[in-house]
Amino acid sequence: MVVLTKGDYVWLEDPRKQNKKQSNDVPIGARVKIADSGQLQLQDDEGKDHWMSADLAQKLRMMHITSIEGVEDMIRLGDLHEAGILRNLLIRYQENLIYTFTGSILVAVNPYQILPIYTGQQITEYKDKKIGEKPPHIFAIADNAYYRMLRGQQNQCVIISGESGAGKTENTKLILQFLAAVSAQHSWIEQQILESNPILEALGNAKTIRNDNSSRFGKYIDIHFNQQGAIEGAQIEQYLLEKSRIIGQLEEERNYHIFYCMLAGMSSSEKQQLGLTRAEDYYYLTQGNCLVCDGRDDVKDFADIRSAMKVLNFSDGEIWEVMKLLASVLEFGNIEYDAIETSNLDAIGFRSHKQTEAVAKILEVS
Question: In whole angstroms, how far apart are CA 97 and each of 71, 72, 90, 138?
Answer without folding.
Answer: 11, 9, 9, 12
